[in-house]
C-alpha cells in the first residue's frame, strides 16, 4: 500500500482530531472520524484501523470500570448486538462501497439533525426496545463503527445513575469491538497489504489526540465542542451524499 504523503498527513490529522474529541467529551471516535476518513481511505481500510484503536481505548476505559456495569442491561443487549454485527459484516463484504458511503452520509446527517434539534424525553423505556436498538446498533457498528449512539439512546433511558451508564456503555462498546474484530478477521478484512503498517503509523496520532483531549477536558465547554463536531459532521455527511448519489 503506497499512500501519498499528503494522504497520510490528512489521515493522521483526522485520527488525532477524533481522539481529541473523545478525550474532551467521550464522543465516539469512529462517529467523528469515519465521515472524514472515507474521503482519504477506502472504507474497508478505515474500518479495521479505527477498530484497533477502539479496542485499545476499550481496554483503557471500559474494562477498568467494569464493577459499575449494569449487567442486566448487558444481558438484554448483547445477543441482539452480536446478531447485528454479523448482519452488518455480511452487508459490508457484499455491498458496493458507493452504496455504503451513501448510507454513511445519510446516517450521519440524520443523527446529527436529531441530536441538534430533538430533545428526547427522560422517561424510562421498556426493555423490549433492546431487540431493535441492539440489532440496529450492531449493524451500524459493523458497517461504520457508529453504533455507540444507538446503544446510548436505549441505555440512557434505562440506567439512571450516570456512573453506571458510562461504565455500561463503555463495556458494551468494548464487547462490540471484540465481536467486530472476530467478524472482520473471519471476513479477511485485515488482509490488505500494508494495513498493519498504516495502523501502527497512525497509532501515535490517536494516543496524542486522547492525551490532548483529556488535558483540555476542564478548559473547554463540552457542549460547545459537541455542537461544533456535529456541524463538521453535517458537512462531511452532506459531501458523502452528494458524491455518491
Number of helices, where a helix is a run of at least 4 consecutive DSSP H or I residues: 10
Q: Give Rg in angstroms.
A: 17 Å
Quaternary assembly: single chain
One letter per element, helices H and strands E, the order comes to HHHHHHHHHH
Shape: globular
On the 0 to 100 scale, the average pLDDT is: 88
Q: For the terminal residues, how far apart are their CA atoms? A: 28 Å
Q: What is the share of helical residues? A: over 70%
Q: Say how many strands there are.
A: 0
User: How would a crystallographer describe the biggest sheet?
Assistant: none
* Tally of distinct domains: 1
User: Structural class, from secondary structure content?
Assistant: mainly alpha
Please mark out the parts with pLDDT under 50 across 5 or more consecutive residues, or reply none.
none
Beta fraction: under 5%
Give the key terms.
single chain; about 240 residues; mainly alpha
What does this structure look like?
There is one protein chain. By secondary structure, the chain is an all-alpha fold. It has one domain. 76% of the residues lie in helices and 0% in strands. The chain has ten helices and no strands. Helix 2 packs antiparallel against helix 3 and helix 5 (97-117) runs antiparallel to helix 10 (222-244). The longest helix is centred in the last third of the chain and has 25 residues, at 162-186. It is globular. The two termini are 28 Å apart. The relative contact order is 0.21. The mean pLDDT is 88.
